[in-house]
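Task card 7
Instruction: Convert sequence to structure tokens.
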Amino acid sequence: MRVLYSLLLYLATPAALAYLALRGIGDRAYLRRWRERFAFFRRPERPGGIWIHAASLGEVNAAEPLIRALADAWPDRDLYLTTFTPTGSARVRERFGDDVFHVYSPLDLPGSVRRFFNRLRPGLAVIMETEIWPNLYHEMARRGIPSLLANARISDHSFDRYRYFSRLAGPALAGVSRIGAQSETDANRLRTIGAPADRLSVTGNLKFDIELPGGLQADGAAIRASWGDTRPVLVAGSTHEAEEAPLFDAFTRLLADLPDALLVLVPRHPERFDRAARAAADAGLRTARRSRHQNCPAGVQCYVIDAMGELLRYYAACDVAFVGGSLEPVGGHNVLEPAALARPVVVGPHTFNFADITRSLLDAGAAAQVADAGELAAVLGDLFGNPEQRGRMGEAGARLVKQGQGAVNRTLALARTVFTAEAG
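Output:
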């Protein structure tokens, strides 16, 4: 099966490059560093370090506390970080700078994977979430590299696909030294597709161990003061194109009762900044962009944050947080960030990427779920009209986040079990 998979992957490589080129139309970062996709990069200065793979922005954010814990646990080991997306790469540079060795991860081609390990030469591999690449895992096991699949999850959306391809996924997982699953549900699904039960543990979700930057609340308060403390503010974070029209529709309905309300729109992908701003203006909203106005001008109804890495600042400044990727079937994004900041959370119907966490927030009374623009407008109207309810929801969310912490320490303990001999 793996030979057939590799052949098909070689045949599909031109399509993969075409995909990168198409993404490059909107984000030119996709047109750069293609050699790294085939594992052509300079070697790190010292072999035997700890390699952490976090595919995209969300995985990098989730991995950050674990990465720092690994650095503290093995200060004599270099850290190698790989990502697949330019947004993930940018976050690595922003958060870690030159403290880590960073390149893109290779395409899962046998030759590229062999070249990758020949050049990187890690002593420990830590792969985040659901990155199951048969050739990568096979080569890792063949070389005897201790490995940990951390924060592992199998969503409802992907479970059937993994079961269908269990003859590929199963042998790949069988070569991993230890697996730390986010929940019992994830552990059961991993066992179903071939993960060895004796190597599988439930460690919890690393996203609960969110580290809020020092001064974030004060920064949010200063931003909020510049807008006006009594002005109703909705932050829509990590939004996607198809859900912005219903979002604008709901917010326009809200303006009928709250004419001074402000929508702070934070698109998920930088290549969409221009289109998102135009869409807001076309929806009839008076619009300004962060890149052109350091502070939101008076009278603006939609303030577009066309910069990366600023979402937490604006969550800290809002009354209500809508988390994107949930009004269309993307699966939702990180609902724990606004919850950790004690902000009430609103999501759409598609939250399969954060199914357990979203359910916990809903059960705790920390979040509200809506089906469409009409329900979103109604829920927002209720929340903006009831500050006591907003306060209760925010407190419940912050309490839930605190109760769920500890995954970093449990995952670090797993890493120690597979890296003790190499660490000396």
